[in-house]
Amino acid sequence: MTHIRLAVVQDAPALLEIMKQYIETPITLEYEVPSVADKETQILAFSHDYPFIVTEDEREVTGYAFAHRNFEQPGLSWNAELRAFIRLKQRGHHYGTAVMNVLMDILRLQNIRNVYSNVTEGNPRSERLHSKLGFTKVGVLHKTGYKNGRWLDLQLFEKRICDEQYQESPAPFIPFSQLDRAKVDEIIAKANRELAAGGN
Ligand SMILES: CC(C)(COP(=O)(O)OP(=O)(O)OC[C@H]1O[C@@H](n2cnc3c(N)ncnc32)[C@H](O)[C@@H]1OP(=O)(O)O)[C@@H](O)C(=O)NCCC(=O)NCCS
Fewest CB within 10 angstroms: 62, 66, 76, 77, which? Predict the structure, then answer.
């Protein structure tokens, strides 16, 4: 039975295996799979401030997803970028939908208001996933990526995950590590109940 849990540094080798399945494609604009040590560092660094989760079944980690900061300036603290990767053979079982929804539910607890994804041209699965989740394609960065001898467009997807009120003093961003763990566990448990029921 596939379920979602928080990522731990020991997941690094499995995450690299999944990344290897995509590294030759324009889906990721990374050129090389990092070392295990570098992936461990990324998990630790990202998961301090933002959610970093995996899906796994009885045998192996089947996918991973995380949020990270996309703009450095303090005035842009209420935004995050999302990424998700599901093992090739595990695609199409709604795990992508489930992990993206968990990330967004946790980010709401952190007072994040807007989430973004960059999708390279020619990735219809990802485009469909984002449309299904209520993202809007807000623009195309033309020929901005280069990989395997080709210049590639990057599509920018946006979703507002807060209510539409624009208070003068928004609630501050809360780093993931400072969240009430019980609330995070409840979001993950709810998603796992839905996965077990074949929902999404
Ligand atoms: C994009 C990705 C995360 C989707 O994960 P997934 O578990 O396969 O997605 P889901 O099963 O939740 O399907 C989501 C939607 O994608 C669409 N989809 C599924 N299979 C598809 C296919 N073969 N062709 C086109 N669209 C497809 C459907 O609209 C589906 O929703 P629906 O079944 O309710 O109609 C996964 O394919 C992946 O890891 N791709 C490589 C990395 C990537 O592109 N990440 C996204 C950018 S951050």
Answer: 76
pLDDT digits (tens, 9 = 90+) for 50-105: 999 999 999 999 999 999 999 999 999 999 999 999 999 999 999 999 999 999 99
Q: Map out the domains of the chain with their CATH numbers.
A: 3-191 (3.40.630.30)
Ligand 1 atom at minimal distance to the Cα of residue 98 = 12
Instruction: Show Cβ contacts of residue 100 under 8 Å, excluding neighbours closer than 6 positions.
Output: 65, 82, 84, 129, 133
Distance in angstroms (rounded) separating the CA atoms of residues 3 and 109: 21
Give bridge partners of residue 122 from the DSSP assignment: none
- Mutation to probe ligand 1, out of 29, 126, 129, 130 (largest number of atoms < 8 A from CB): 129
